[in-house]
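ARCHIVE CARD
Drawer: 12
Card no.: 0347
Subject: one protein chain, sequence and derived structure
Cross-reference: see card 0346
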Amino acid sequence: MADDALLFVLPDHHPRLGATLASVGPLECAETPAVLGWLHAQGTPASSSRIRIVPAGSEDLIPEDAERLPVPLSEEETVRVAQACAPEHVTDMEAELLSFRDTTQDWQSLVHRALAAGISTPRIAQLSGLAPQDVIQIVNN
């Protein structure tokens, strides 16, 4: 793990930047003594809307006078933080890409199951959008 995000206390009268810590779901780092001590020193609970998080590389968004703390995140947590901080249309597109990846990850197995169900090779190609030669290659393997 590396420092993959920054926690910060949003100063009064600043536009809402980043995501609230509570909105990204549970983070391993949020239970560490370093983060708990930092929150205690700020006198602000983790559930406060003033406690914000941004992914690494977004430091320029944080007001200069904001108290900040770099935190390590897992790969999955980094994705959640980035999605929570992204404009909604970006988040929707990323979710669609993840769904596509999950759907296409095992496409060879899907073709085999379709063949076993009796669906013809040309029909599989038509319905799946796969190239006919890709479907034929699966049949021949």
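Annotation on reverse: The chain has six helices and four strands. The helical segments are 33-42, 75-85, 88-104, 107-116, 121-128, 132-140.
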